[in-house]
Amino acid sequence: MGSLFTIGIPVYNGMPYLPETLDSVLRQTYQNFEILVINDGSTDDSWRYLRSVRDPRLRLLSQENQGLTPTLNRLLAEARTPWLVRLDADDIACPDRLARVAEQIALRPGAGMLFSRAQHHHHAKAISLARTSEGSPAQLRAQTEAGYLLAICHSTAVLNVRKTMDLGGYRFQLHIEDLDLWWRMALSYDLIFIPEITVAYRLNSASVCIGNLSELSVHTLYAQYLLLSHLWNLPPLGFSEARLTLEDLVDQRRLRYREHMWNAAICLSDQKYARAGKHLFSAAVNAPGRFVERVRYPLQRNTAIQVGESPEIFERLREQLWPAVTTRAAREAVLSS
């Protein structure tokens, strides 16, 4: 019987974590899968290590550095199976991950994507569970149709290859390639949530999201702007044109809260508890309600977790964000008067 899964791992300077990641894949209880690793121009020992691994299921490709989005699209194009299982080069797949996914695919073979809960690798339990949009396909679609993005850990995603490519695959080199895909997938196909932890993802100071939270916040708003443009049938601006308006929407206190929470998480992972405590205190000062909600989350999960600002805020900025429509409407009003 042919394999259902290609485990797709994009690698750019994946050492020293890559061996642990690959070992977690090889130790799966469900063993009928392929592994596709694309080395995206690594300058460390990643390629040397990968070539030392002996397993007939492992297929290696190497390319000059192109960035994450082109590499993800190449993973989709090169996959030889119906489903692509995402995993980053520093994350850990739980032993039963593929077994749980295979069970769900047997029940829902027409789904566009499956995803699950995730936890931080070697992390304090109080804030170890990643906040995830949980719910039925209908609930996830309704949240998207209301104009909000979905919170999904990218490494937990299992993509139907054909359906993902039909949607245009991944877009943009803005670190929102996942958020942008989730809303397009949710509006077109069923998203299946698996209520288990299947991936542990690693936090470290080199992570893109930690070092660029301010920029990432603007990029996230742009993904929501694209969703709202689609829902409202309005032509969106390019990122460079919309950027200044979107920057004004970033909540600075919330941004400082997120920065402190991320830094606290890194310190906890490194067992630097005194420094972690200082960041947690600062996070609580900047956003006490969010802090309490975050600490309680592992015990009281909220299925309505959503990403983005109120769509009403975007509506109030219609003239700046959709100027072509505003100009056309004004022109038509003059001609009809």
Write the layout of secondary structure elements.
Layout: E1 5-11, H1 18-26, E2 33-40, H2 46-52, E3 58-63, H3 68-78, E4 83-86, E5 92-93, H4 97-107, E6 113-120, H5 137-145, E7 158-160, H6 161-166, H7 177-188, E8 191-201, H8 208-211, H9 213-231, H10 239-247, H11 252-269, H12 273-286, H13 288-296, H14 311-316, H15 318-321, H16 323-336
Parallel strand pairs: 1-2, 1-4, 2-3, 6-8
Antiparallel strand pairs: 4-7, 5-8, 6-7
Helix pairs in contact: 7-9, 9-10, 11-12, 12-13
Characterize the structure shown.
With 337 residues, the protein is α/β, with parallel strands linked by helices. The protein has a domain of 204 residues: Spore Coat Polysaccharide Biosynthesis Protein SpsA, Chain A, CATH 3.90.550. An eight-stranded mixed beta sheet has the order 3-2-1-4-7-6-8-5, with helices on both faces. Helix content is 48%, strand content 15%. The N and C termini lie far apart (70 Å). Strand 2, helix 2 and strand 3 form a beta-alpha-beta unit. Helix 12 packs across helix 13. The chain has 16 helices and eight strands.
Shape: globular
CATH architecture of the domain at 1-204, please? Alpha-Beta Complex
Listing every helix as H and every strand as E from the N terminus to the C terminus, the arrangement reads: EHEHEHEEHEHEHHEHHHHHHHHH
Strand order of the largest sheet: 3-2-1-4-7-6-8-5
Relative strand content: 5-15%
Number of strands: 8
Global Rg: 21 Å
The span between the termini is 70 Å
Counting helices, strands and paired strands, the structural category is alpha/beta
| Major sheet size, sense and barrel closure | 8 strands, mixed
What's the average pLDDT?
89
Would you give the CATH topology of the domain at 1-204?
A: Spore Coat Polysaccharide Biosynthesis Protein SpsA, Chain A
H/I helix tally: 16
